[in-house]
Write a structure and sequence with these properties.
about 90 residues; 3 strands
């Protein structure tokens, strides 16, 4: 299966059939798949592991959905307040 078919009958079909604004993946796991297909994605902080290391969440969408993804990511950041400035020693 080529990339165009995988995009049209895979990701785009999933998004359109389910009327989704965004696909959400933990960490940045979805960003490479989105990039290969030419789809936009945005990653934002989603918390910290038991050792204090940060991890994120990725919101991806269809081509042209960048404004919506920015709104979703901004809303997530404002609702969760996970972003912390780095400690300056």
């Amino acid at each position: 299966m080529n990339l165009a078919k995988a995009s049209k009958y895979g990701f785009e079909k999933l998004m359109n059939d389910n009327k989704l604004d965004a696909l959400v993946t933990p960490y940045s796991n979805g960003s490479s798949v989105l990039a290969i297909g030419g789809y936009p994605g945005i990653s934002v902080p989603a918390g910290y592991d038991k050792n204090g290391g940060p991890y994120g969440i990725c919101f991806g969408g269809l081509k042209g959905s960048e404004p919506t993804l920015i709104e979703i990511a901004y809303g997530f950041e404002q609702a969760t307040n996970f972003r912390k400035p780095p400690a300056i020693n």
